[in-house]
TrEMBL record, chains A, B:
Residues 22-257 form the ABC transporter domain. The lineage of its organism: Bacteria, Bacillati, Cyanobacteriota, Cyanophyceae, Gomontiellales. It comes from the Bacteria. It is found in: Cell inner membrane. GO terms for cellular component: plasma membrane. GO terms for molecular function: ATP binding; ATP hydrolysis activity. The keyword Nucleotide-binding applies. This is ABC-type nitrate/sulfonate/bicarbonate transport system, ATPase component. Keywords: ATP-binding, Nucleotide-binding, Transport. CDD domains: ABC_NrtD_SsuB_transporters. It is a peripheral membrane protein.
From TrEMBL, chains C, D:
Belongs to the binding-protein-dependent transport system permease family. The keyword Transmembrane helix applies. The keyword Cell membrane applies. Keywords: Cell membrane, Ion transport, Membrane, Transmembrane, Transmembrane helix, Transport. Residues 89-269 form the ABC transmembrane type-1 domain. Pfam families: BPD_transp_1 (PF00528). The chain crosses the membrane at residues 36-55, 96-118, 130-149, 155-174, 251-269. It is found in: Cell inner membrane; Cell membrane. GO terms for cellular component: plasma membrane. This is ABC-type nitrate/sulfonate/bicarbonate transport system, permease component.
Amino acid sequence: MNSRTLQEQTSVRLLDRQAPKLSIEHLSKSYPVRGDRHLNVLQDINLEIFPREFICLVGASGCGKSTLLNIIAGLTPPSSGAVLIDGRSVTGKPGSDRGMVFQGYTLYPWLTVAQNIAFGLQFQQMSKSAQREKVGYFLNVVGLEKFANSYPKQLSGGMKQRVAIARALANEPAVLLMDEPFGALDAQTKEQMQEFLLELWSKTHVTVLMITHDVEEAIYLSQRVYVLSCRPGRVQSEILVDLPEHRELDIKLAPEFVAIKRQVLQLMRQE
Amino acid sequence: MNSRTLQEQTSVRLLDRQAPKLSIEHLSKSYPVRGDRHLNVLQDINLEIFPREFICLVGASGCGKSTLLNIIAGLTPPSSGAVLIDGRSVTGKPGSDRGMVFQGYTLYPWLTVAQNIAFGLQFQQMSKSAQREKVGYFLNVVGLEKFANSYPKQLSGGMKQRVAIARALANEPAVLLMDEPFGALDAQTKEQMQEFLLELWSKTHVTVLMITHDVEEAIYLSQRVYVLSCRPGRVQSEILVDLPEHRELDIKLAPEFVAIKRQVLQLMRQE
Amino acid sequence: MLESISVPSPKPPTRQHRYLSPSIFWSIRQGFPQRLSWLLVALSLALPLTLWTIVSSLQLVPPTFLPTPLAVLSAGLTMFAENSLGEDVLASCGRVLAGFVLAAIIGVPVGLAIGTFYSMDSLFSPIVGTVRYMPITGFVPLIIIWVGLGEPSKILIITLGVVLYNIIMVADAVKFIPNEMINVAYTMGANRWDVLWKVIVPATFPSVLDTLRVNISGAWNFVVIAELLAAQNGLGFKIIQAQRFLQTDKVLFCIVLIGTIGLTIDYGLKWVSRRLTPWADQIRH
Amino acid sequence: MLESISVPSPKPPTRQHRYLSPSIFWSIRQGFPQRLSWLLVALSLALPLTLWTIVSSLQLVPPTFLPTPLAVLSAGLTMFAENSLGEDVLASCGRVLAGFVLAAIIGVPVGLAIGTFYSMDSLFSPIVGTVRYMPITGFVPLIIIWVGLGEPSKILIITLGVVLYNIIMVADAVKFIPNEMINVAYTMGANRWDVLWKVIVPATFPSVLDTLRVNISGAWNFVVIAELLAAQNGLGFKIIQAQRFLQTDKVLFCIVLIGTIGLTIDYGLKWVSRRLTPWADQIRH
Amino acid sequence: KTNAPDNSSAPTAASAPLVSAAYNWVGYSGHYVSVKKGLFTQEGLNVQDLFFQSASEEITAVLAGKADIAWLTSGDAIQTIAKDPSLKIAYLVDYSNGADGIIGRNIATPKDAKGKNAARENVLFEKVLLQAYLKQGGLTEADLKIKDMEAGAAAAAFGSKQVDLAVTYEPYLTKNAKLGGGNIIFSSKDTNLIADVVVVRDKLIKTRSKDLQSYFKAVDKAVKLVMASDPEALKISGDKMGVTAAEVKEQLAGVKLFDVAANKTIAFDKSNPKSLIGNLELTTKAAEEFKFVTQPLKVESLYDDSIVKSM
Ligand SMILES: Nc1ncnc2c1ncn2[C@@H]1O[C@H](COP(=O)(O)OP(=O)(O)OP(=O)(O)O)[C@@H](O)[C@H]1O
Ligand SMILES: Nc1ncnc2c1ncn2[C@@H]1O[C@H](COP(=O)(O)OP(=O)(O)OP(=O)(O)O)[C@@H](O)[C@H]1O
Ligand SMILES: O=C([O-])O
Ligand SMILES: [Mg+2]
Ligand SMILES: [Mg+2]
């Protein structure tokens, strides 16, 4: 069985003797609603992500996934609990260590595609030519060389999201947080981006936490999948993806893969 | 072989002796770009959709799918060509016969969820109580009864898109145009929405043209899939989905289904 | 479609990360302690008052030109007690209200029309753009001839002074409505009239409230010009009158009184705006 | 999670559909023929001129108050030829420019600070909100004492008259920046200073240009008050002078001249704004 | 109604009110008191009071036909009549008697003014005053560096030592002379350089002479009360101008008021060196000289003394 309780999981990891890259401790979030009532969006979330792990988070719409990612990024203050990077609390403190790709389009309309991708680079001491090179590389990665000098308003929805992904990647965060980054992509681009992301991840030190509603994508990309339950959002279960680290696209047809997929879908339907 | 040229397809349809609900004739669209050059986004698009058909349109990101849908809806004027509904030209003339669900979120922030869903109803001579009933029904359909009186800013991304879908459906268009409507939904809600859409479609007279990047979704839902090629956007091929009209979710695992899927993916990779 | 992808060699793990250091005072759109806010508000009002007290007490400026706050206050109390300043306040408030309401009733619809329809833009913009620059004082003789010397002429001056700003600012606000919001309405059978009423009007509503808040101070500026016209009372009247006899204390009291009324209106309108648009992003607190 | 779904019985196929009837004149954000636009612009300027000609020619109003356009024009030509009106135009333009540039240099940064930081809002808003309502004429004696009678005092009056509007309108514009734009910057290592310069400044740039366009007309309104102060030339000076001599033709010529200058500024700034923000949604044409 | 019926004053008082305009100047106390004490009503007149803050709005109102009777300086009156010759000066209200003047710093004789910075408003009565002063030293305005500004601003400019000479009036005169470290170097005391008058429509003089007689009868009563420092009259005047009764009394020291009798004996008596005619001749000449009027004016066409003479 691949599904375990958090208790078990933690003990397994302790044996690994590795310190988590990102850990979330007793995190809760509630929003005030009309009257004096509160909407509990997240309740006592605990999770740990280890260096170089690729983790996916799945859960029904509106169960608090984006809220959780925003809190991890330090953009939304939690009602209680803490977010730690390398053991250091970064609760409510955003930084370049946690890069983020947002659910909506968040390109700067006054910058061209190339300038958008270079946005984060200006905060590092990086020469103009190094910036240009990096931007060129990532333009190539997302297949938008021809649109380097276009403004966002001239792009399609999917193209915008590709630029947003390139922008986050170019900034080399320690943890990459992604909120349904491929939601707006066509099947083909999506698969290419998935492959690219896997390749990038396997060659670099980046740790990834990604929200997706595509279970297949979650399994294909990650080592572990967290399933969030709804109202209030809690970590319902955790699935270990026991697949070889190096994966090809056709692994999606493998029986192990399908078995894990069935299991995740079952868990999601349980509640 | 399910793939045919447009020529063949037309002749088959002519045998059906049925007039198309929606037809697009020699449609082209180009945008002016810097200098005197033009970006040809769509070139000589011809397609016909027959009453009660469910058609999906797939294609790479940025190949002009949204542009095509906007032209069909009458919102963007084509550079040349015509859009006909029941043989009548509606080029550049939007109307309630072609309902549309946009790619981005387009809820009215000043209206509650219930009021957003009721938006189109006020333009029909419909009593308040009939409106309330209809809104209640569609709130139920998209699972947002509890949020009837919430404002859009209080909803998650997926929830917003569900409201947008409910709003378009409640308005009972003759042709429903959808631009990646389930792109932001979680797997489970997405499947439920797919099932619901199929059920709704089979029981009503609505004709559907839907853009999706999920090939599985396209096949599951539609009778025909159009594949758009890129730069400029043309109808590259058309795939007839030879599956029973009444479909269950598990059809996605059937060998016929997988065969069609493989075929579509192949066609998309061809270019 | 995508180019073949090759991944760069692993980056050196030396990448220096930058964090946003928490700050209460310099926070942007994050919570701000209500107490600190009140403190700063108090400071902001106390500082100029203190400065005034010092400059006037040390007589760095002759008292004829800058009396002490105390002198101003006592002059004000005398005016209330003996010169029925209350009536002046009411009279000016009435004129400002009437002139401003008229400027809103005319300015908001015309502004919406200009912002919405290109034809109305072509038709009205040149004249609005031209007249806006013309000093109102130049029209006073024509106003006297056509409207006379009663209340209507005073109200008209205030209206004329404000209405063009209302128009141009409301028209600008319409530009910020995303096209999709309008398009959605068309696909649900709305005609242009519906779009105007059901989309453009509610979408610009917060901006219109903002515009009115900005421009009501203009109405108060024009009340002084308006009350040059055969007025028997009003705060502007009192200011000009006191200026004539070098009663700087009275002038300053009336000015401070207008400022106080303004501050009340400002905070009142901000509150009303928050109340009327619960759906808008509440950026603060 | 979703409720069990039951589909309603098929609707009667009688659903009446509504279409958007095409319209050129009433089009919203669709193309508008350039020719029709010029026609409407011409109409908009010709209509008031015709009305003026009729009313003045028929002497419905005594010529002392409303001379004919021809009389005004000839008075204007005389002023140019004999009273060196050209110098007045230059003098006033210089004052307006100086005063307005100063008001922009102060107003835009302060407005951005107020819109961005809640602390600055608490600190500045009360005083800006109060002073904005105060009639500038009340401060004239203090300005004479402190700044004197030269050009600086005139420029100061113009600046004071406009700067508070700049501040409040720029501060309002900052509110419209979506939170996500700011948040993205944080996650890429930007600090608040970076956010201010790399996000808030460029994001508000079009609104700032709009604000300056709206408020430059205010600067022209205040030039009349400014030139009450020991001016020897200027269009405002000429207006006041002509008013004292009851030379309505000269007054009207100066006013129309200011309006024309204004119209030029307006269209010029719109053009500049389109040029400087190619990335913004071009809503028309 | 006390008057006998007269052909020339056909309209009854009740049917056609007289619209009478004034602004805030202590010399016009007679107007304020007549209105407030109901003296006009006692004379059977229906007088509608228009109160302005400055002469320019009042002049506009008169020219626009919104006022029948207007209290103005003689300079303003001349300019107004030049625009509308159907207006006539019918009554002398006051001479400035020290209330207007020139303050100067380090200026002992008029000759010392040469080349100095001077502030004055570009209105006739101030120019006449300055002209009279400079003439003593053989100078004209052209010998000074003139800054054109309103009287209050001119005083402030002198008070803050930005000009060496300023033409202004009370209370600015005394206060700013001290502030600016100078003194009053010239004043209207014992001159007829600055006069205030009542302007009436010609048609009114012809058709409603009886009403006008009643009007000036009321004014006469009020002026006498003011001259006698009647506390109630001083209070009324103070309320109108926003000052105390005591301040009114102080200001009155700077003007010489005229009742009907003085109008008969001094104002319209050409032979009197202090007559209004003398003032009008001086002012008219200045108006032409300074191009305040475009066409030459005949002094005789400016006034109509028939009403006061008939009383
Ligand atoms: N206003 C515009 N000016 C110039 N080019 C434009 C404009 N709008 C769209 N385009 C171009 O048209 C092409 C098609 O855009 P469209 O939005 O239709 O793509 P799409 O197929 O819907 O893509 P996606 O799946 O990513 O949403 C893109 O290449 C885009 O760059
Ligand atoms: N500002 C707010 N005020 C009140 N409730 C809010 C607010 N923002 C979010 N919520 C609520 O929090 C819940 C979680 O929202 P969130 O955006 O995190 O969901 P999600 O899991 O990302 O959904 P999706 O998959 O649809 O994007 C939703 O029920 C939403 O209604
Ligand atoms: O009004 C006068 O100053 O005389
Ligand atoms: Mg989300
Ligand atoms: Mg699209």
